[in-house]
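Appendix B, record 7
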Amino acid sequence: MRLGTGATACIYLQPPALRDLRRRHPRLQIEVRTANTKDIVRAVEENQLDLGLVTMPIRGRAFAVTPLIEDELVVIGPADDHALPAVVTPGALGTLPLVYYESGGDTRHLVEEWFGQAGVAVRPIMELGSVEATKELVAAGLGYAILPRMAVPPGMGPMMSGGPPRHG
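Structure tokens (predicted):
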């Protein structure tokens, strides 16, 4: 089985599912590849992958699509900093130093679309491809980030929901 997924889902969703799959089918060979949604969709279309676990919506040929979860995006900030606004709006967040996902990712696209619909231009102070690196930089006091809730452990600094929508 050849599976494609984003790095966040690979870290936070897949380990228990793959462990269970391995337990039920010990001889099954499982190949996991991480990439952005558009690359995974293309690989499924080209028969390079059998299954994709991606952020919706997807564009491409006709697929059998089964939503698994809906995970909201949340805003995190340094634990000792209380600059997060009481109400999360594009205007309020646009004034803060933001650490973004790297260009081309679907979470990045959702966040940019959310700011764009409000007419807020944001220039991130950093762009990273790793949710773990992003959390470390936020914890070090270097900025704020918008991440999937599944990637944020309870008690990790101030966290506000109500940001951009997330489709699972």
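Remarks on this record: Residues 46 and 115 are 33 Å apart (CA to CA). Residues 73-160 form a domain with the D-Maltodextrin-Binding Protein; domain 2 fold (CATH 3.40.190.10).
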